[in-house]
Amino acid sequence: MAGPALIPAGDFRTSYAADTTIFPTTTSRNFAIVGVLLLCLVPQVLGGYWLSILIQTGIFSIAALGLNILVGFTGQISIGHAAFFLLGAFTSAYISNNAPIPVFFAIPIAGVVTALVGLIFGIPAARLKGLYLVIATLAAQYILLDFFSRAEWFTGGSVPASAEPFSIFGYSLRGDRQYFYVVLAYVVASYVLVTNLMRTRDGRALVAIRDHYLSAEIMGINLTKYRTLSFGLAAFFAGIAGALYAHYQLVVSQEGFGIERSILFLAMIIIGGTGSIMGTLMGTAFVVLLPETMEFISLSLKGGAIDKALSLNNNITFLREIAIGVIIIAFLMFEPDGLAHRWRQIKAYWKLYPFSH
């Protein structure tokens, strides 16, 4: 008599709770736990360069996660996300420098302050769509950047604002090896929080608005309320990420956080997959590693036959910017659902292998 199968055939979900579980199988849950535990060992193995890359990936993935709530789950658009990221950085630095509040508490406070500002911009933006919404979020970007330039009491003006190292109850965490665990904790907490949010009534309302806002309104969903809420949530996670970035760099400057940074945040969720939480992390890692890869290729080509044949000379360094633009266009054309969709296809293939059905 044959023994029980290790992998049951079919889908035996018999309740709504089972259908909305975070991990579809026990194996996937165990892999996630093991993955987090292995990440805890990374600082003992990798050097400072790769630790810095991982820290940046974690910080930017939190900001991209907030943007995915707005764009991927609610169907809105924003090209002013970098301004909220910077607002969170300046707010946390200002609080930790001018109030007897540890950085551990300054970071979530900065997230709340940024969320409130996001709600202010979200109220008028929630009534717009299409090109008008794009212009409204672009206006938010330039309004905040102008505020940062003029409010020297808040940002330090032309002098970058200093930020305290991460501390909790008088104990400071300095260096990449220690700060890696801080970022890892915030990444895990943020992704678990958003995953559970999408399983709630409010999360389903956001998705309903994205899929068909007229049907959602007929079902009694308040479009203005939830669209405004999505702006606040996106700003909250951008503020958290910005605060983490400030206390990692220990200085905050608005240089490098213009419209091009907002486009990069959009690229992260487009490449990873809009409306996919796992895809957000994959897209962020892709965008962070892409410039490093292109830098390596640029250095390899410099002075070589291709460089001389095309007369690239010093222009070879612009390959990074060109590559990012080309890859975004390629994903929009050939893989609009992003890396997350490709990953699901790979898993489905091996789940059915060697059978085609």
Automatic annotation (TrEMBL):
It comes from the Bacteria. The keyword Glycoprotein does not apply. One of its GO terms (cellular component) is plasma membrane. It is a multi-pass membrane protein. It is found in: Cell membrane. Its main location: membrane. It holds the Pfam family BPD_transp_2. The keyword Plastid does not apply. Keywords: Cell membrane, Membrane, Transmembrane, Transmembrane helix. The chain crosses the membrane at residues 31-55, 67-95, 101-123, 130-148, 179-198, 229-248, 263-291, 312-334. GO terms for molecular function: branched-chain amino acid transmembrane transporter activity. CDD domains: TM_PBP1_LivM_like (cd06581). This is Branched-chain amino acid ABC transporter permease. It comes from Bradyrhizobium rifense.
